[in-house]
Design goal:
heterodimer; A: mainly alpha; elongated; B: alpha/beta; Rossmann fold; four-stranded antiparallel beta sheet; 10 strands; binds adenosine-5'-triphosphate; binds magnesium ion
């Protein structure tokens, strides 16, 4: 019954990049406080990890034995992972309905995922960088106070590493549920009440 | 006018064949639709009536390509939508169907104008053209002066008007409305109904509306009565008036 000729014209192209970018920016601007809280959650997790990492370096400069500190760093990384994932999952699942609506307007699945990717990249980058700087800074002061020394290069390395780790975590934790939501039938996404 | 409506009767925009929808499995299974076969004609104003839980919204989701039937098929413009890929479905939703919901469902972070232009951007319309048409549509629904307001700054009736403007963005053949007046007071609801009727007449867009609202019946060309997931009765306007349902 359905002729291929009728389907052939169903050529859906994605809108230009700035459409997704504007949507992501609008979402951050309008939900500023909600997004700020998410971002602070990310920052605190990363700050914890970054400070543990800095203290480990400080400690190893004194005792040469940092197995205990390595355990602490690993634990802090795990806690940070749980914290970031939790913040992002919450903030994405609040928006299933919005995802369903955008699908009704004709958005492709990849457009929806792109919007969440951009938002998470912005939130993840700012939150992680702020957290990493804070964590490294505070631990450095503490280390100096107790007579240990941490090289500037180490501080810089830890800050960058923690920022990247935080960004990757944030993006994965946002994009995974966004992909799931984009793939579900629009009716199911619209039904989700939060 | 009457003649063109007569001619439209031959033009089927939506056809469902034995559509059934089951939610859940085994003991907990709910059969929300149970074999619905119907034809909907281009340019008509169709109301779907039925008690709560009878399957109106489920049928709405099937016709609109928002969900897939468990059994049977749905044809929109004689294309079986079960055969479409995700991308082709997105195209169908973008170009062929406009959606209106009881809860308005505007994008809360964008302004009224941005809500109306978004579907046009998805359709590849250049931004300045989209904005121009967006303003025309907002003027058409009487909200041109509120274009830069976000949905939270608008009343329910105003939000529904924006939703109507948005549903018209890409010149759809069909507008699907699920209880569009359900969250509005009597007077505002009547205004929304009048607006839908006007669009139906002037733009020849097919309106399919699930409703509890008896005011809606006065303007409908046909009425589908749904009971327990089945199409119990199809009434034309004349029959409805004769049986006293739609007496003004
Ligand atoms: N996602 C779902 N999962 C399970 N059951 C569902 C789901 N959606 C609908 N149902 C069930 O299917 C039946 C029909 O629901 P539907 O929403 O289509 O009714 P309706 O006619 O639109 O009712 P109302 O007038 O209250 O909106 C109901 O019994 C409902 O509980
Ligand atoms: Mg319903």
């Amino acid at each position: 019954m359905s002729e291929p000729s009728a389907r052939a014209q169903f050529k859906n192209v994605d809108p230009p990049f700035w459409v997704a970018w504007n949507q992501a920016l609008a979402s951050i601007r309008v939900r500023f406080f909600r997004q700020l809280i998410t971002s602070v959650g990310i920052a605190l997790g990363i700050a914890f990890y970054a400070s543990m990492q800095t203290l480990r370096i400080a400690e190893s400069s004194l005792t040469k034995d940092d197995t205990k500190m390595q355990w602490l760093v690993a634990t802090s990384l795990l806690m940070c992972l749980v914290g970031v994932t939790n913040s992002m999952l919450m903030s994405v699942s609040e928006r299933f309905r919005e995802i369903g609506t955008i699908k009704c307007l004709g958005a492709s699945d990849s457009f929806i995922v792109r919007v969440f990717f951009l938002e998470a990249t912005i939130l993840g980058a700012t939150g992680s960088f702020a957290g990493a700087t804070l964590g490294v800074g505070l631990s450095w002061i503490a280390a100096r106070a107790s007579g240990a020394d941490v090289a500037f290069a180490d501080c810089l390395g830890i800050t960058l590493g923690a920022t990247v780790i935080g960004m990757v975590m944030t993006v994965l934790a946002a994009v995974a549920p966004a992909i799931q939501a984009a793939k579900m039938p629009a009716a199911a996404a619209l039904r989700v009440e939060v | 006018m009457e003649n063109s409506r007569e001619a439209n009767t031959q033009d089927v925009v939506v056809r469902t064949v034995d559509v059934a929808k089951q939610y859940g499995e085994g003991e907990a299974a709910v059969r929300a639709l149970n074999g619905v076969t119907c034809e909907i004609y281009g340019g008509e104003y169709l109301s779907i009536m039925g008690p709560s839980g009878s399957g109106k919204s489920t049928l709405f989701n099937m016709i609109g390509g928002l969900d897939k039937p468990s059994e049977g098929s749905v044809f929109v413009n004689s294309v079986d939508i079960a055969e479409l890929t995700a991308r082709e479905l997105a195209f169908l939703r973008c170009h062929t169907i406009g959606y209106i919901f009881q809860t308005f469902n505007l994008i809360t972070v964008r302004t009224a104008l941005e809500n109306v232009t978004l579907p046009m951007l998805f359709a590849g319309t250049p931004p300045d053209e989209a904005e121009e048409r967006g303003m025309e549509l907002l003027d058409l629904v009487g909200l041109g002066h509120r274009y830069h307001h976000r949905p939270t700054e608008l009343s329910g009736g105003q939000q529904q008007r924006v939703a109507i403007a948005r549903s018209l963005a890409n010149h759809p053949r069909i507008i699907l409305a699920d209880e569009p007046t359900g969250n509005l007071d009597l007077k505002t609801g009547q205004e929304i109904i009048d607006l839908l009727r006007l669009l139906n007449r002037d733009q020849n867009v097919t309106i399919i509306s699930a409703t509890h609202d008896h005011k809606m019946l006065d303007v409908s060309d046909r009425i589908f009565h749904i009971r327990d997931g089945k199409l119990a009765k199809i009434e034309t306007k004349e029959e409805a008036i004769a049986s006293g349902h739609a007496a003004a």
